[in-house]
Write a structure and sequence with these properties.
The complex is a heterodimer of chains A (432) and B (166). Chain A is mainly β and 432 residues long. Chain A has helices at 12-19, 56-66, 90-95, 139-155, and strands spanning 7-9, 28-31, 37-41, 45-46, 70-72, 100-109, 111-120, 125-134, 164-171, 179-186, 193-198, 202-207, 213-218, 225-230, 236-238, 246-251, 257-262, 269-274, 280-282, 290-295, 301-306, 313-318, 324-326, 334-339, 345-352, 355-362, 368-370, 378-382, 388-395, 398-405, 411-414, 420-426. The longest helix of chain A is centred in the middle third of the chain and has 17 residues, at 139-155. The two termini of chain A are 42 Å apart. Chain B is 57% helix and 12% strand. A 4-stranded mixed beta sheet of chain B has the order 1-4-2-3. In chain B, helix 1 (5-23) runs antiparallel to helix 2 and helix 2 packs antiparallel against helix 3 (77-90). Mean pLDDT of chain B is 84; it is low at 1-26. The chains are: A mainly beta (432), B alpha+beta (166).
Chain lengths: 432, 166
């Protein structure tokens, strides 16, 4: 059965949905690190007319705080709110234990423009000065870019605040059918916009490496099918329509192909579709369940979940040789791997004492670290800089998103005000 | 796996009787014979309609949802019993069926999608072994995406591990 239809669907629905109101996710930090860097983010001076569109400094403050690597000084503890280097008295900041100070100014002449300086309080020197600008509607994204720069200057790791999330939410509907939504939001859950609204399940959203498209599974035809959607235009395209499973899309690092799971030939197996020629290549061929493919960053091998050994475990398929190797050995349930950009850290769902946690497997040391202590944790997605893992869990009998740093030190929740939220997918670094 | 010898044979026997009656008449008794055959066919039709009605009610009585144990796609004795009622009916009509496989919330969503399909296929295979053509059966898995019972705990989970015949 080779009904490979590529149907271009009209976009009115998706575009209309973009304007629809989506519920904000709010952030609750549940655990911080023991040794965070103390930084004071002084409120940025507003040089424009009227009121500023956004409190840029507050967004930066919240980003740094959420990372777990910083402990921002509350504004009320600050002895003054300098906005220029000339207004800074270093000893005041040393007195309140601040190691760094961030100051800035916001102006608007058409675009919003943010100038800022990062100061080292101990050495009494300027570490960095930068400028960010863009439309006022993107004020929060501009703030996230400031936070990215500060994070990178101090930790040496590229910041990932100016990124996006997509996730699925479900609310109870009438007639025993839920309403399903695919939503895109900033990395802090702010500015949610609905990408797709459906009475049929939506699942498995995943990003293209260029950050401009996503792929997902939708049951809107009353059967599962894989779709891809351009974020800028809302244009959608149905990629598969096979008998049986059409699931687990995963974009190759070069963006040219999509790994997926189909059961058209019997049992669920991993296939790769060339997105230009639409040709399918069968990767695994086993009577067991083979699913949840994840590309290694070099594009030369795929991790996948299989119960060929009796219980679900993670295996690695080498695209060059066709060899399959088992990767996980600890515990009797390891599934849905996602690989960090370093190609070393793998996050996955790991069962321990009957509970499902998020675990990190170091492919080099072969050590397994359980990162979460809640149960029913699933769908881990790793930040493009490898620092945080976003996942879905249950809290107060609701599906919510939560995050944990890869060292397990920092944790926060993103509870939604309505419905069950799940299947977060963290975007790659976004180019402007 | 021959669980159903009884249901299929009843109408077949009736049909054979009606044929014998139809063929036994001599030329001179043609009209009488034809009338008798027609009467026999009518009563066979009536019996058949009654039987179909009985099978329809029997299938409705057992419901269209078959439940499974955790992480298992093996049919339980209860599921087999309920399925037999549906198979008896499907042997008598030409309806196409759709089997929707579902799981509870434990485990990953995509693995559950595969597990739901395994459950639906397990029902399909049992039907096929009992003479229902697989061309009439479609398996669709919803994994854990369509729970009947919201919330956690075995009492909820047990209701969600199911195949629905539609």
């Amino acid at each position: 059965m080779n009904r490979l239809s590529a149907i271009l669907l009209t976009t009115a629905l998706a575009l209309a949905a973009l304007q629809a109101r989506a519920q904000n996710l709010t952030i609750e930090i549940t655990q911080g690190r023991d040794d965070p860097t103390v930084i004071a983010v002084s409120p940025f001076a507003w040089k424009g007319a009227g009121t500023p569109p956004e409190d840029i400094a507050a967004v930066v403050d919240s980003d740094l705080s959420r990372s777990g690597q910083f402990n921002p000084v509350p504004r009320t503890d600050m002895l003054g709110w300098p906005a220029q280097e000339s207004e800074v008295f270093y000893k005041d900041w040393r007195a309140i234990g601040s190691e760094y100070l961030l100051i800035g100014r916001v102006s608007q002449a058409g675009d919003l423009r943010v100038e800022y300086e990062l100061l080292d309080v101990v050495r009494q020197t300027k570490v960095y000065s930068g400028v960010e600008s863009g439309p006022a509607a993107d004020a929060r994204m501009i703030a996230h870019r400031v936070a990215d720069a500060v994070y990178e200057k101090i930790t040496g790791i590229r910041g990932a605040f100016a990124t996006k999330l997509v996730y699925v939410s479900a609310t109870r509907g009438t007639g025993g059918k839920d309403n399903y939504r695919l939503t895109i939001a900033d990395s802090d859950g702010a500015r949610p916009a609905i990408l797709l609204d459906s009475r049929e399940p939506i699942l498995a959203p995943t990003w293209a490496p260029d950050g401009k498209q996503i792929a997902y599974v939708s049951f809107e035809s009353s059967r599962p099918a894989i779709y891809r959607q351009e974020l800028a235009t809302g244009r959608r395209e149905q990629l598969t329509n096979f008998k049986g499973l059409n699931s687990s899309p995963a974009w190759s690092p070069d963006g040219r192909s999509l790994a997926m799971v189909l059961s058209k030939d019997g049992s669920p197996d991993v296939y790769i579709m060339d997105l230009v020629s639409r040709q399918l290549t069968r990767i695994t061929d086993h009577y067991a369940i083979d699913t949840e493919p994840a590309w290694m960053p070099d594009g030369r091998s795929l991790l996948f979940t299989s119960d060929r050994g009796g219980r679900p475990q993670i295996y690695r398929y080498d695209l060059g040789s066709g060899n399959v190797q088992r990767v996980t050995f600890e515990g009797n349930y390891n599934a849905r791997a996602r690989v960090a950009q370093d190609g070393r850290n793998v996050v996955m769902v790991h069962q321990q004492n009957g509970r499902f946690h998020i675990a990190l497997l170091d492919l080099v040391s072969k050590r397994n670290y359980v990162l979460t202590s809640t149960e029913l944790d699933e769908s881990p997605s790793i930040a493009p800089n490898g620092s945080m893992v976003l996942y879905a869990t249950k809290y107060a009998d609701r599906g919510i998103l939560a995050a944990v740093s890869v060292d397990g030190g920092a944790k926060f929740r993103l509870p939604s005000r309505e419905g069950d939220v799940r299947e977060p997918a963290w975007s790659p670094f976004l180019t402007r | 796996m021959k669980y159903l010898p009884l249901f299929g044979k009843v109408p077949a026997v009736l049909f054979a009787v009606s044929l014998i009656v139809a063929c036994s008449g001599s030329d001179t008794q043609e009209d009488d014979g034809a009338a008798a055959a027609a009467a026999a066919a009518r009563s066979a039709d009536q019996a058949s309609a009654l039987e179909l009605e009985r099978l329809t009610q029997a299938a409705a009585a057992v419901g269209n949802v078959f439940y499974f144990e955790y992480d298992s796609s093996a049919l339980t004795p209860e599921a087999v019993q309920a399925l037999n009622a549906h198979i008896a009916l499907l042997q008598r009509n030409d309806r196409n069926v759709r089997l929707d496989g579902h799981t509870d919330e434990r485990g990953t969503r995509e693995y559950n999608m595969a597990l739901g399909e395994r459950r639906a296929n397990s029902v399909r295979d049992y039907m096929a072994a009992n003479g229902i053509s697989t061309a009439r059966i479609e398996s669709v898995s919803y994994g854990e995406e369509r729970p009947i019972a919201y919330g956690s705990g075995e009492s909820n989970w047990a209701q969600n591990r199911r195949v629905e015949l539609k």
